[in-house]
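Input chain follows. Return structure tokens only.
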Amino acid sequence: MTKTTQTAVDQNTIRRRGTGLRAYNPEKAFRGYTLFAPLVGQSTVYLIDMEGEVVHQWKLPYSPAQYGYLLPNGNLLYNGQIPESPSRFPLWSLFQGGVVLEAEPSGKIVWEYYHPDHHHDARRLRNGNTMVLCIEKIPRWLVPQVKGGVPGTEIDGDMYADVLYELNPAGEIIWTWHAWEHLDTETDIILLQEHRQEWTHGNTVGELSDGNIVACFRNISTVVIIDRQTGKIVWKLGHNVLAQPHVPNELPNGNLLIFDNGQHRQNEAVNYSRVIEIDRQTKEIVWEYKDDPAQSFYSPYLSGAQRLPNGNTLIAEGSFGRLFEVTAAGEVVWEYVNPYFGRRTLSAETTLMRGEYNSVFRAFRYAPEEIPWL
């Protein structure tokens, strides 16, 4: 009689499928170092080599992390979360942010800025200032004019939207842009499935080569370009193309690379994610990556993409901690799954946030010459 060995099975689906380095084609991948930060459970930013080995890490005082990226001087710009931040946004326990800092490779903090309503993103500008994404309450009289969303889901009749602040190195606000002053209540419509506590839900702010600002608003599935001098929206791509996008970023040819998450995608039988390159002049999709079958690649939240110097694209499938690189033809040549899991501590926990997960907001690949201190 054969004896059966009882073995405990890991009940976490993502971890059971395997973590760490999952695939690597050294002949086709862009060799360098990948930077990422687990979104839950810790405040560590990791730098790994192509084999998935940690070669450097920053342990920072604010946990959990949002994300970080390297500045030209080799320091890390880090967006951190302060769970007890005194934000005026009632759903802060599901949102979180609060601190932006610059840290040397040693971990020494050389610049720090707190704002109770900071969330998701902050970027260092070429002039040395920092653009910070925050949230604010919009005027009560405007709320009924904003269309879409689940009726009656405002917060005691109030609605919030995004505001951008440009800070000088001393932390003084020298430029402000209020989303509610520039969006169109007739066309910038909240998705029908989203609640009306937020009009925009920004997740990205960045600087273009001409000095203008690009921003991304998930709740209205819209990417905008803002004229730095006038504050006017001079370019817009909306829900006829996008579905809850993240991280639009400018390519050397002037086009925009966008992670198009795909939750509540219009006129589609299934939800799926894709990465698209948009010609800014024609607004046409000139390059696209999606899996086959399409639903095999899907992150309803988070995520981003970076075009690499060899023409490949690094993609962060954020909800599942999957980082992978594809060629222009869509061939996967490198894949790594974040092995660091954690549980998020929330005062108003929802089904979405329960359990143990390994989400990553964004990831970046750097060539060896970009990290001379390593």
